[in-house]
Amino acid sequence: MPLFEVKAGGPEIDDGVYPVILSDITGPKTVTVQRGPKAGQEIDLFDWIFAIDAPGNVYDGLEISTSTSTASGPRSKMFGYLTALFGGVAPAIGAGFEKVDLCGRQALATVRKDEGGWPRIENLGAMPAVMLRTAAPVAATAAAPVAAAPATEPVAATVGASQLPF
Q: Containing domain of residue 61, as a range?
């Protein structure tokens, strides 16, 4: 038996769409962009940690993290995440959120493995209201109904221009 074995980069998970629940947000942290047109520049990022939320599914509880910049305007990735977490209702300009307002909310994540084998959230969409609490499995591999977070109320405001007040 070898001392060690080189394995794929991330946890085994099939590409697909999964119900997820936001378990944590960390940051902001400052990083230096490594590639692309902004290479060499420093930017601030939030890390969003989602857990697969499919009781009975082999992937239930598996955490997948993704990052967004601190930009929160209507064209930003963060704005899309907030819209998904509030059931497809876009937050109004000027709204502020704490972690407690967001953690525990559900969405649907399109998961794809990158070239290194790590699962990445390619897209985050709203969980249809009909799927909350009584949904049939979302992923082809799901074996049990999806547990739901409490029903969400429409958001009356959107996030301001710079960052969330965590």
A: 16-131
